[in-house]
Specification:
The protein is mainly beta and about 725 residues long. It folds into four domains: about 110 residues, Calcium-mediated lectin (Jelly Rolls, Sandwich), CATH 2.60.120; about 220 residues, no CATH class; about 180 residues, no CATH class; about 150 residues, Immunoglobulin-like, CATH 2.60.40. β28 and β29 form a beta hairpin.
């Protein structure tokens, strides 16, 4: 395993069996330490490099170096030292983790920092991060944010703290860009932060570490160390944004979304990258966290199989100078000079960020940080196959539940795991998860083939099966403790792909890395993901596509039980729409730059528009009206007395074709003309289009839609299709 413990460490070691001399090495033989255990050997001095420390073993009878299972344990600080154990298991089946134990000790100076803790996932009814320090309520998922906005009290607080983040979710629908890591929202509670341990300096500080390499034994000599460790209390977050009444409201909201309703599970062997964060000028004077401040990469570490991690870094002179500029008005220099940390969870290297935490402010020299990730951030590896089939899930949607994946390749999901969808098509990048752990013999390689349906003049045909040749990689630990992406496939291998009576032939195949015992160097999370399917490659337009996965043993023979086929209906095209006009009923359409003088304050307006989805995967559409600077004007269809979005949603049985599971847009309506356009009459639900103090204003009639597609993790949000701008004037009667 890789341990982010840069700098000097004294390492002592012991074995469960004193008669068993076990050789070990740290950071590989090229730049690390080879040690041989016996009862008389003393501790060795290890200098962790920029990636930290990795430990390998060479047990008796072994032909080479191997990485046994590791766990971190017994973190503790005493005097001026920090200490923890690396416990190992020789994989003999006893799971005792006492076969070989390394105890690591470091002297902590004023500028050294050690962060340790456990990384876990959370799910359930909690909407705030259950592990974050009590000084903030943290929202670190877009889905949780959307759900919390339905709570009027939390909405009012968020509108004051994060108006620019909240406004797009409440008003104008806009196309989503390619989403990066969700930047958390932090709501100050007024409570002090959790305490930590800080170095106090007594007189002058002198540290002298000597090694005697020539004697064949490394020793550390400590002289005149005049520092100590002191528990420091948590700092009170100085924020004038929220009043006492707001903080009381937050306390009640926190009780409502009780953390006791959370399900929390360990996240094993995750790659963590640590960043030092510098606040923006507005954040220094009281604005909430924006994520727009400067960032510096400190290093990378990985958690063990129970989610435990440790990371050590030292503040350089440059970092200290930068921290001096990260001090706001009336803030304490001794506190604010400590670094602020953001922790990223990496899916791939170097920039595959799956999740990013909120900042942990003013980190003392020793700080325990227990991380919690939303459970939909990553797929934990399966320890056994379920449901009697190889393919287990697509993204976060399990396909083992009956009737989830339909015969035509569409998907419905009502489970809390994965997005809620009804006969949805697939789009974008779809993660294919499959399990071969229960097969005999073991699956060493796998192939994926595909074919797609083509429809011409109403006649359906299928293309021949073809090989999937899409590149796929996964993070792997290197011998020096670093991590990098390594190729999983495809690589040409000689496999018996066409039955036992035919010879083997070269075929593009992938390495199966899901076995967590055999393939310990591979990052644990996403290990049973077999491919990230770029659906645009396999179905350039829209339609059904079959994927066929087969497993092979190490000799290239087909494993009978490792065989599965899945059908996906792919649609990467989105719905379109336009508005022909918005005008008073009976008036002519003047075209561009229309200005209407209406005789009555709530004059009915005729709106002619069209929504088209060629494949029928429309979920719903809306017609919204905005006045002036983005002020919503609530309207209704005069004939139905309902808002447009209420009447024309896909769940309305009158509009949704239950037989074909499709909704093609306005052409499905009886009132539509031959081109699919409909005309409705809308009126303001209030008494007037204009406010009492205005005789004229600009209006925007905006048509938007939501498509019924998914990538297994999320669904598209509302997209703005058309904006019709007009002017309305009305002279009030004196």
């Amino acid at each position: 395993m890789t341990i982010g413990m840069q700098g000097l460490w004294t390492v002592s070691f012991k074995s469960e069996n004193a008669a068993w001399p076990q050789r070990f090495r740290i950071n590989g033989s090229s730049n690390g330490v080879d040690g041989k255990y016996d009862k008389k050997s003393g501790p060795i001095l290890v200098n962790g490099d920029q990636w930290g420390i990795t430990v390998e073993f060479n047990p008796p009878g072994s032909t080479g170096w191997m990485a046994s299972r590791h766990r971190l344990a017994n973190f503790k600080a005493s005097g001026d030292q920090f200490q923890f154990d690396i416990q190992t298991d020789d994989s003999a089946g006893d799971d005792d983790f006492n076969d070989f134990v390394l105890t690591c000790t470091a002297i902590i100076t004023q500028w050294d920092h050690i962060v340790y803790g456990t990384i876990r996932t959370y799910s359930g009814l909690c909407r705030f991060n259950p592990c974050f320090p009590r000084s903030y309520l943290v929202i670190d998922s877009l889905e949780y944010l959307k759900e919390l906005l339905s709570d009027q009290k939390i909405l009012e607080i968020l509108k004051r703290l994060y108006p620019l983040r909240i406004r797009p979710l409440l008003h104008r629908p806009i196309p989503d860009p390619d989403p990066g890591p969700f930047r958390p929202l932090m709501i100050p509670t007024g409570l002090p932060d959790e305490p930590g341990i800080s170095v106090i300096q007594r007189d002058d500080q002198r540290l002298n570490l000597e090694t005697n390499i020539s004697s064949g034994k490394d020793e550390s000599v400590l002289q005149d160390q005049r520092t100590g460790l002191s528990l420091i209390s948590g700092t009170l977050q100085k924020s004038a944004i929220l009043a006492k009444e707001d903080r009381l409201t937050l306390a009640k909201i926190k009780d409502k979304y009780s953390f006791r309703r959370c399900t929390i599970k360990p996240a094993s062997q995750m790659i963590l990258r640590f960043l030092e964060y510098d606040r923006t000028e507005s954040e220094k004077v009281g604005d909430p966290y924006s994520g727009e401040g400067g960032r510096s990469v400190l290093g990378i570490t990985a958690s063990d199989e129970l989610g435990n991690f440790i990371f050590r870094f030292t503040q350089s002179v440059e970092m200290v100078v930068e921290e001096l500029t990260d001090i706001g008005i009336s803030e304490d220099v001794a506190t604010e000079i400590r670094p602020d940390l953001i922790i990223q969870i990496l899916e791939s290297l170097p920039e595959g960020v799956a999740h990013e935490t909120a900042p942990y402010y003013n980190i003392p020299n020793i700080r325990r940080i227990n991380l919690c990730l939303p459970s939909d951030v990553f797929q934990p590896p399966r320890k056994a196959c379920q449901g009697g089939r190889a393919i287990q899930a697509l993204g976060n949607i399990s396909i083992l539940i009956p009737n989830t994946l339909h015969a035509d390749g569409t998907v419905s999901n009502t489970s809390s795991t994965g997005p809620q969808v009804n006969h949805a098509a697939w789009y974008g990048i779809v993660d294919l998860f499959a399990c071969f752990l229960d097969t005999v013999p073991a699956v060493k390689y796998y192939t994926i083939r595909y074919r797609r349906e083509e429809v011409h003049d109403g006649i359906s045909t299928w293309t021949p099966w073809d090989w999937v040749n899409q590149y796929y990689q996964h993070p792997k630990k290197q011998s020096n403790g670093s991590w990098k992406n390594e190729k999983i496939g495809p690589d040409a291998r000689s496999l018996r792909v066409n039955g036992p009576s035919n010879p083997k032939e070269p075929a593009p195949s992938y390495l199966n890395i899901e076995n967590q015992i055999v393939n310990q160097d591979w990052q644990n999370a996403w290990r049973d993901r077999k491919l990230r399917i770029d659906t645009r490659i396999y179905q350039p337009v829209a339609g059904k596509t079959d994927f066929w996965i087969e497993g092979y043993d190490e000799t290239g023979e087909k494993v009978t039980a490792a065989n599965d086929v899945i059908r996906l209906y792919i649609d990467n095209g989105f719905s379109a729409g336009d508005i022909v006009y918005a005008k008073p009923v009976g008036a002519s359409d003047p075209g561009d730059c229309a200005l209407f003088s209406i005789p009555s304050a709530n004059e009915p307006f005729a709106v002619k528009f069209r929504i088209v989805d060629k494949e029928g995967f429309l979920k719903s559409y809306k017609l919204n009206v905005y006045r002036g600077s983005n002020t919503p004007v609530t309207t209704k269809d005069l004939s139905t007395n309902k808002a447009v979005s209420e009447l024309y949603g896909s769940l309305d049985p009158v509009r949704f074709n239950i037989i074909s599971d499709r909704f093609f847009g306005t052409k499905d309506l009886i009132a539509a003309d031959l081109d699919g356009y409909v005309e409705i009459t809308v009126v303001p639900t209030g008494t007037s289009w204009l406010p009492p103090d205005r005789d004229a204003c600009c209006f925007s009639f905006e048509l938007s839609s939501i498509d019924r597609v998914t990538n297994g993790y999320s669904v598209p949000t509302s997209r703005l299709l058309w904006r019709e701008l007009i002017g309305i004037s009305h002279k009030s009667t004196p």
